[in-house]
Specification:
globular; eight-stranded parallel β-sheet; 509 residues; binds calcium ion; alpha/beta; Jelly Rolls; hydrolase; 25 strands; binds beta-L-fucopyranose; single chain; glycosidase
Length: 509
C-alpha cells in the first residue's frame, strides 16, 4: 500500500462521522455504531479531498513557466546532451527577478524555472554532475546560480516559486542505472528543495528515455518511468525539505491536463483513479475517481517552442484571456511559459504584452458586484456552535468561510439582487473543495424585470464547478467581454450534486 493511499484511508477514518467498533469477544462479533459529536454541524466530506498542500497549491491558480537553459543558446527544443558547457553563454547577466516582475504584472502569483532540461545541463552549481553552469567559461555565467537567484527574487516579491528538473538526462553516463536515481536525480531534487522550504511545486516532465550522449556515448536508453525514479521515496524526502511542494506529473500530486494548448474540459473533476484503468482522464478528470489529483494546464505564451528562438512571438492579450477562462475558469491551474532570451532576460515584446494582459485581467475583474448584492439561498444549513453556513459567506471574499445547504438537499438556488440594474459579464463560482468536489449540474439565469428569468451562457456546459469556475455570460471564451447584460438579479440554480452543495465564493463582474 503506498503512503498516499494510506494517508487517504486514515483521513477518511478520522473524519468519518460514524465510528465503528467491534466487541472484544471474537466469537460473538457485534457491531456497535456511534455517531461522532459534531458541535459545528459541519457537512460531511465527500471523498476524496485535497491534502493541505494541494489545497494551497490550487489557490495559486496562475503562474509562469520559464524555459531557459542550454537550449536557448543552441537553438534546440531538446538538446542532445553533448553540447559544450561553454555554449551556455548569456550576452548579459541573467536576471530572474526581471522574469518574475514581468509575470507579476500579468497577474501571475508565481513561477517555475526550468533549471535542468533533458540535455542534463544544470543552471546551479550542483555537486551531482560537472555538467553545470559553473563549468561554462562565459563571463556572464561565472558565479551565477539561477536557482538561488530565482528563489531569492520570488521571496522578495512575495511570489510562489519552484523548479522544473528533468528526470531524463541525455548527458549522464549513469542514466538507466539505480545509481543515477540515487546519486544524481534525487540529489539534484534535494539540492533544489534546499533553496527554500516554502516552494510550491516541483515539475517533472513526462519525456523519459531515448537517444542521447550518455557519458559521451551516443546510444539509446529506455527506462520504465512508473518504477525507475523511486517516486514514493522521492516524494517523502522532498516533502521533508520543503513540505508544501506539489510533486507534479510522475510525483502524483497534480495531473497533466492532457494537452499543451491551454484548455481544460468544461466538465472537470479533481478526482482521478489510480490502479483502476483509465488512471488519468486529462482534460475532464473522473467523476467517481477515488484520488484527489487536480489538473494543471501547461501552455505557451510564445510560439513556436518552449525555449526562446528568433521566431518567438507572444499571444495577444485577448487570446491569453481566453486561455485563462478555459483553464483557471475551468477548475485547472494555468502555468504559462514565458521564455527568457539569450540575454537571460524576458524580451521586451513579452514584457509589454504581459503588462497589457495584466491590465485587461484587472479591469475585467475589478468590481465584484456580488459584494453589493443581497444574497438568498433556498436552503441553508443550521449553524453550529461558532460556525455559520449563511449565504453571506459566499460574498465575503474569504476562501475559508462557506455556505452549505441542508443535508440531502441537492437542488437549491442562490439569488443575488441589486436595487439598481447592473451590467454583468462574468460569474465566478467556487466550491469549498476541502469537503470534496460535489456539484454535477447547475445553471445561471438573470432577470431584468425582477420576475422573468432567462438563462445565460447557454452554450457553456454548466456541469462541474470545483475549486473555481468562471462563466462568460455570453457563452464565448474567445470574445467574452461584449456589451454585457442588464440584470436586476442573478440566480445560480444548483440542480444536482453528490451531496449537499458547499460553496465558498460567488463573484459577479
Ligand atoms: C515536456 C518537455 O519534453 C518539453 O520540452 C517541455 O519542457 C514541456 C513543458 O514538457 O515534457
Ligand atoms: Ca467565503
Amino acid at each position: 500500500m503506498n503512503n498516499r493511499f494510506l494517508h487517504g484511508v486514515l483521513t477518511a477514518l478520522a473524519l468519518t462521522a460514524t465510528a465503528t467498533s467491534f466487541a472484544q469477544n471474537p466469537t460473538v462479533m457485534t457491531l456497535q455504531t456511534q455517531v461522532a459529536p459534531n458541535p459545528e454541524n459541519e457537512p460531511r466530506p465527500v471523498f476524496p479531498v485535497p491534502s493541505d498542500r494541494q489545497w494551497q497549491w490550487q489557490q495559486t491558480e496562475f503562474y509562469a513557466f520559464f524555459h531557459y537553459g542550454m537550449n536557448t543558446y543552441v537553438n534546440e527544443e531538446w538538446g542532445k546532451g553533448n553540447e559544450s558547457p561553454n555554449s551556455f553563454a548569456p550576452t548579459e547577466k541573467p536576471d530572474p527577478r526581471q522574469w518574475l516582475e514581468a509575470v507579476q504584472a500579468a497577474g501571475m502569483k508565481g513561477g517555475i524555472a526550468v533549471v535542468k532540461h533533458h540535455d542534463g545541463f544544470c543552471l546551479w552549481p550542483t555537486a551531482s554532475t560537472d555538467y553545470n553552469i559553473s563549468h561554462s567559461s562565459s563571463p556572464n555565467a561565472q558565479g551565477v546560480n539561477i536557482a538561488e537567484l530565482f528563489a531569492k527574487a520570488a521571496q522578495e516579491l512575495h511570489m510562489k516559486y519552484g523548479f522544473y528538473v528533468s528526470p531524463w538526462d541525455r548527458n549522464n553516463g549513469q542514466y538507466g542505472t539505480d545509481s543515477y536515481v540515487k546519486d544524481v536525480f534525487l540529489k539534484q531534487c534535494a539540492e533544489l528543495a534546499k533553496y527554500g522550504s516554502d516552494q510550491f511545486e516541483m515539475w517533472f516532465d513526462g519525456a523519459n528515455g531515448g537517444d542521447g550522449y550518455y557519458g559521451g556515448k551516443n546510444t539509446t536508453i529506455h527506462i520504465d518511468r512508473s518504477t525507475y525514479y523511486d517516486v514514493p521515496n522521492l516524494r517523502d524526502s522532498i516533502h521533508k525539505l520543503s513540505p508544501n511542494i506539489i510533486l507534479w506529473g510522475v510525483g502524483g500530486e497534480a495531473r497533466w491536463i492532457g494537452n499543451e494548448d491551454g484548455w481544460a474540459g468544461e466538465t472537470n473533476w479533481c478526482n482521478e483513479n489510480r490502479g483502476v484503468a483509465p488512471e488519468r482522464n486529462g482534460m475532464y478528470g473522473t467523476e467517481n475517481g477515488w484520488f484527489w489529483l487536480p489538473g494543471e494546464s501547461d501552455a505557451k505564451f510564445t510560439n513556436p517552442g518552449w525555449f526562446w528562438s528568433q521566431k518567438s512571438k507572444p499571444m495577444t492579450a485577448e487570446r491569453t484571456f481566453q486561455m485563462y477562462l478555459e483553464t483557471v475558469g475551468r477548475n485547472s491551474t494555468l502555468i504559462l511559459n514565458c521564455p527568457p532570451d539569450r540575454s537571460g532576460k524576458l524580451p521586451q515584446d513579452q514584457v509589454s504584452r504581459l503588462k497589457e494582459f495584466g491590465k485587461m485581467l484587472k479591469s475585467r475583474f475589478q468590481t465584484n458586484l456580488a459584494k453589493s448584492a443581497t444574497i438568498e439561498a433556498s436552503s441553508t444549513r443550521a449553524h453550529g456552535a461558532t460556525r455559520s453556513y449563511a449565504a453571506n459567506n459566499l460574498i465575503d471574499e474569504n476562501p475559508d468561510t462557506y455556505w452549505a445547504a441542508e443535508d440531502d438537499v441537492k437542488d437549491v438556488t442562490l439569488t443575488l439582487k441589486w436595487n439598481n440594474p447592473q451590467t454583468v459579464r462574468y460569474v465566478t463560482l467556487q466550491e469549498y473543495v476541502r469537503l470534496g468536489q460535489r456539484v454535477k449540474s447547475f445553471s445561471v439565469e438573470y432577470t431584468t424585470d425582477g420576475s422573468t428569468w432567462k438563462p445565460l451562457a447557454n452554450k457553456v456546459k454548466q456541469t462541474t464547478i470545483g475549486y473555481k469556475r468562471i462563466i462568460p455570460l455570453n457563452g464565448s471564451t474567445a470574445n467574452s467581454y461584449g456589451s454585457g447584460y442588464e440584470a436586476r438579479a442573478i440566480r445560480i440554480h444548483i440542480k444536482d450534486a453528490k451531496a449537499c452543495p458547499v460553496m465558498s465564493e460567488i463573484a459577479i463582474y
